[in-house]
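Example record

One chain of 467 residues, shown exactly as stored in the release files.
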Amino acid sequence: MQGIVGGFVKGLFAALSLLILLSAVAAQEIDLVRAGSLDADVLVTWSVNITGNAKSVDTLKLVGTLVSNDSRQQITEFTSSAPYKLEQQDGDMILTYQLDKPKQDNEIRTQTSVRVDYDTAELVDAQYPFTANIGYLEETNLTKTTPEMRQKAKEIVAGANSSLEAIARMTEWVHNYVNYSLGPSKVAVPGAARGVGYGDVTLPAADVFRVREGACDEYSHLLIAMLKSQGIPSRVATGFVSSGNAWGPHAWVEAYVPGDGWIAIDPTFNEAGLLDATHIKMASAPDQSMISERATVFGKEDVELLIDRNVEVRVSSVHGFGEIVSGKINTTEMGEREEEVAVNIVNERDSPVFVPLTFVVPEGLSADRASRMIVLGARENRTEMFEVHLPQLEQSMIYTFPVSVRTTGTSIDAEFTRTTAVAQQTQNASEVPGKQARQTEQPTCVLSVLLALMLVVSAVLESKDRL
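Predicted C-alpha cells for this chain:
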C-alpha cells in the first residue's frame, strides 16, 4: 500500500503536492466594502495521477472538503461527477471518494452553489470573562504562547466590559501590530527552503509575535493564541477571498461567545462579525496544520500519487449590506500642523455591531491609530477622535484636505482647509543675490491644493494585498 497524507497550501487545506489554480470573476468587480451577501458557484476539479503500475492498484480513496454549510453560508445545490460519501462536522462538509480499479489519470469534478451572507446574525453582547465547555482553548503547535504574549493579551483586554469588546480590542491590536508581507520569512521553517516567502509557510504565533510580520495565517494564529490565552475559544477558518476582481486562498479566525456561537473575525483586514461576503469558507480547525485533504491507494505494488486541485469561483450576484452605521465628521484646528477630527458614529441597528474604522488622509499627512475596531451597542452613538499631522506648508496658500472614514457598508467623508500666512520680509533684497524680497502687503496667493488624488488606503482593506 502506498499513501499520501499531509501538508497544506498557504491559506488553504491540501495534500502536499496540491496545486491551487484560481480564476477571476468574469466581467465583474466586487465592491468589497459593500458586499453584504453574494451568490456563487464553486467549481472544484481534483486530478489524481498514479505514477507507476496503475493496474496494480485496487482502490483509490480521496478525502476532500466541500464548501462549508453553516449559519453564514448555505449550500443550495451540489453536483459531483463521481459517487461520494458526505459527512458533516460542525458545519464543515467532508467528501470521501472511492474509485475501484482507478486509471493512471483520474479526475473528479464538483460544482457547489452557495449563498454567503454575514449580514444576518444579531449579536448578543455576553459578559466577559465567561465559561464555555466547547474546547478550543488548548494550545497547538501553531498557537502556543509565551509569558510575554499572555501578559500583552491581558493588558489589551483589561477593563473590557463585554466579550465583544475584548475581541474587538485584540483584533485591532493584531491588525496594527503585524506588518503584512509575502516576502522572505525572517524565521527558518523546518522542511522549507531558506528564504521562502510567507506565502508558502506558516509561522507559529510566538514567532509572529517576535518578528511582527507575515500573511493571513500569521495574523490569524497570533490572534487565536491571544484570544485563547484570555479564555475565548478560537479556531482558524480557511477558504477563499476576493481582491475585488480575482480570488485567492485565505485564512481568518472564528471565536466562540455564549449566545452568539462562532463569530467570524479577519485580523488581516480588520473585520469582525460583518465580514464582507467574499469570504467563502471551506474548513475550520484548531490551527491550519490540522486541515488537509488526502489520497490513499491500496494495491499490490508501491506507486506515487500526484494530486492537482483546480478551484474556480463564479459569482452570479452581489448584494449590499443593509444600513449598519451612519455618521458625520467635524474638524478643529489645533495648531499650525495639527488638526483634530471628531467622527460621530451611530449604530442604526437594534443589536450590537463590530465597527471597523479606517481613517484615510491624503498622501503626506498622517494620523494616530488610523485603523480601529470598536463595538457599538444597540442604537449607540459614539464619537471617535483622530489627530491629523500635517507637513510643513508653503506660505501664502489655501490648502484643502479631504478626509474619510471607511467602515463596513459605507464611508463618511469631509474636508478641512488651512490658510497659511503671508510671508514676512526678513531680509533686504540686496542680501539675497538674484532674489527680490516679498512685500508684506502682497495679497495672499489663493491656491486650493487638493491632495486626494491618491488615497493610500483602499476601503476597509487598507494597503494590504488580499492575495
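Notes: The radius of gyration is 26 Å.
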